[in-house]
Amino acid sequence: MAKQSNQKFQSKKMASQAINPDLTRLSPSPSDDNRSDQMAGLVGVLPSESLTSETGTIISDNQNQLKAGVRGPTLLEDHHYREKIGHFDHERIPERVVHARGAAAHGVFQLYKPMGDYTKAGFLQDSAIETPVFVRFSTVQGSRGSADTARDIRGFAVRFYTQEDNFDLVGNNIPVFPIQDSIKFPDLIHAAKPEAHNEIPQASTAHDTFWDFISLMPESTHAIMWIMSDRGIPRSYADMEGFGVHTFRFVNEEGTSSFVKFHWKPVAGVHSLVWDEAQKLGGKDPDFHRRQLWESINQGTYPEYELGVQIVANEEEFDFEFDLLDSTKLIPESLVPVQIIGKMTLNRNPDNYFAETEQVAFHLGNIVPGIDFTNDPLLQGRLFSYIDTQLNRFGSANYNELPINQPIANVNNNNRDGFMRQRIVKGRVNYEPNSLGGGCPMQKMMQEGGFTTYPEPVEGTKVRERSPTFADHFSQAALFWRSQVDWEKDHIVNAFLFELGKVEIIGIRERMVSNLTQVDAVLAQRVADGLGMPLPTPPVGYKDVPYTAEPEMDEKLSMANNLNESIKGRKIAILAANMVDGAALELACTTLESEGASVKIIAPISGDISSITGKLIGVDHSLPTVSSTQFDAVFIPGGMESVKTLCLNSFAVLFVKEAYKHGKPIGAADDGVLLIEKAERTSGAPNDTFSDIGILTVTKDEVDANFMDQFVGIVAMHRFNERPDLEAISV
Ligand code: HDE
Fold first, then answer.
1. pTM above 0.90, yes or no
2. Does any ligand 1 atom lie closer than 6 A to the CB of residue 382?
3. Residue 179 neighbours by CB under 8 Å, 6+ apart
4. Which of 12-16, 196-200, 282-286 has the least mean pLDDT?
5. Residue 35 pLDDT
6. Are 187 and 219 contacting, i.e. CB atoms less than 8 angstroms apart?
7. Domains in the chain, ordered, with CATH?
8. Most ligand 1 atoms within 8 A of CB, residue of 98, 158, 188, 353 to mutate
């Protein structure tokens, strides 16, 4: 049989070859400007293909050290070798003390509506302006080489390169933090990181020291509820919300200030993994989130997030049951709606991981006129830490001269010298006031565009004390719990059972469950039952703690209410083998891809498979190399021979079983149903355990556009975690 070319696969390959990062760029980043300035005059002087030393000598032998004779000792004189190895020996800088593991992307921010009524920040005035951004996502606890899918908070740090300065909105994917005062940060992180004596476990909070600390810090309960929910294991960076966490201030031209909370709402909706899947991905593909970000940008499926603000007038500061300065609290959207003011699109991958993702140095103090800090003690403490940590990471005060950190705003000051200084500032004047430099650079009055600190009156006795308005640690944790749908509550209980189940000291478990009694009686009872222990007594002193059960619910706190109808960016697996029904397969591919999903054909071995009509179809992955955990949905086309082969392949059967257990949509045409039946029979669960929630099957004659639209519909729902008896299925 003549080998026919496969259109689908060919066009895919061509598309990926055609992608040139420089062509996909919408707006140049500051790093590009800088690089091209530096390169001007050099390009063309050397043949670019020549290997050179650091200072430009062309290297003639990069294979052998300089030796005294072919079998003789190496000579100290070998300057090329010493330069090369010496440079290599110094390649690493200290990893970030937290948020070490990260992935980043360039993009643009487009304002929807001018915000001049609230803020004079230049980049929030004119909806015609696009502001370049660089975003770094991260996990908190793990080292640089740890797995992406650990249960953790995700960092969501956004740098806006504005005309007035870089504005760094260094946020997280959950809206609250586990501590109220940043003096507790080293304790929190020490407790969360691997234990001090044996450096175990990596990137996991499921150990004694973490829960020892948390159980003694009731203020962490609200954040812990978020981390134990599926928000702690996002599906991808494109599917998670971002939050500035603290309350900031907006200040307008008239000097009027209001309070503001920043939100990023993913256009793709909010979606998560499930825990079994997250753990397996840690082994199958530890780079899962990083890879997805990279691939989706390369394919042109750009992650998008709308910027939202909750604005509270200055005079409404005390209208809430909680303190706006307390970062363990959020402002329920049912009380203050989020106004959407713009959109960020991530459209370009970094060119160099180290130069950009690793060397980006975020700092809360990178702020622009029109945005200001509040007295949140967590925020205030962070203002010191970020500069300090960058000095340690870079060993120099000049890290803002690195291309990724350079602002597009003019930099003109009397700071000088230091390790690795890049800029050559001319002239002899490096002090102020001066007359020799004509008084330059001169400070500007606030009215002339200088940074405005809101002149908030402050008076007080010097104290080391927590405000009594920060004392309510449980009301919002309870609000979060009440706002979850049933399957979300089940996942939270299971997360507590996993984490506390790994805790060896029983007293720690008791103390934690005791705190949970203040969140919800049913939650505490379910966790106690699951751990096989009696319900502990409530924590001492809890009766004196203020508490409110208002509001009863906030629907935005549930992921089930933050879905998106589109399947753009979803990854769909098509399971097939030789003699597959090629027509059904092709229809599935074209329909799903036209809706923006990425489709992969998975077969027992790589190469090509043949359809019933003899058409050759390129295989994207062989079954042993992938797992259903890397996909959002599965489709099994008919073709009796193909399905028989799959039914005899343990990887294929496991693929469907796992997809079912993880709540994923499954579609099957004609004989493809047999693979679902085989998966069910071997699931170890009683017969008829597989419910048809999220499963769509059809006979051969009915495989048409209408069926495919229905399949797109269930893929859009992402998960069916409400399937009954999922625990009974063994995978
Ligand atoms: Fe950070 N945090 N943090 N943090 N943080 C750092 O700075 C710190 C906090 C956040 O992708 C460090 O450059 C203190 C809240 C992100 O490069 C360090 C406190 C929020 C990133 C630091 C906090 C964050 C960091 C380590 C007070 C969300 C990664 C490396 C309790 C609003 C940025 C670095 C990136 C990184 C200190 C709390 C977010 C040590 C003292 C709250 C996203 O400076």
1. yes
2. yes
3. 185, 188, 217, 219, 220, 327, 328, 378
4. 12-16
5. 40
6. no
7. 102-402 (2.40.180.10), 475-561 (1.20.1370.20), 571-728 (3.40.50.880)
8. 98
Question: How far is Cα of residue 727 from the mean position of the Cα atoms in its chain?
Answer: 28
98 alpha carbon – ligand 1 mean position (Å): 7
Query: Which are the contacts of 647, defined by CB distance < 8 A and separation ≥ 6?
Result: 653, 674, 675, 678
Please report which residue ranges of 483-601 form alpha helices under DSSP H.
486-501, 506-516, 521-531, 582-594
pLDDT digits (tens, 9 = 90+) for 596-644: 999 999 999 999 999 999 999 999 999 999 999 999 999 999 999 999 9
pLDDT grade for 445, boundaries at 50, 70 and 90: confident
- Over residues 216-247, the pLDDT tens digits come to 999 999 999 999 999 999 999 999 999 999 99
Task: Decide: 185 in ligand 1 pocket, CB within 6 A.
Answer: yes
CA–centroid distance, 76 to ligand 1, in Å, is 45
Residue pair 729/703 in contact by the 8 Å Cβ criterion: no
Q: Report the nearest-CA residue for atom 38 of ligand 1.
A: 382
Q: 171 CB less than 6 Å from ligand 1?
A: yes
Q: Is 636 in the pocket of ligand 1 (CB under 6 A)?
A: no
Q: Please indicate whether residue 383, judged by its CB atom, sits closer than 6 Å to ligand 1.
A: no
What are the residue numbers of the active site?
99, 172
Any idea how long the chain is? 731
Taking Cα atoms as reference points, which of 480, 482, 481, 490 lies closest to residue 721?
490
Tell me, using a 6 A CB cutoff, whether residue 381 lines ligand 1: yes
Mutate to test the pocket of ligand 1, among 180, 181, 385 (most ligand atoms within 8 A of CB): 385
Alpha-carbon span 45 to 293, nearest angstrom: 37
Hey, what are 379's tokens? 């925020």
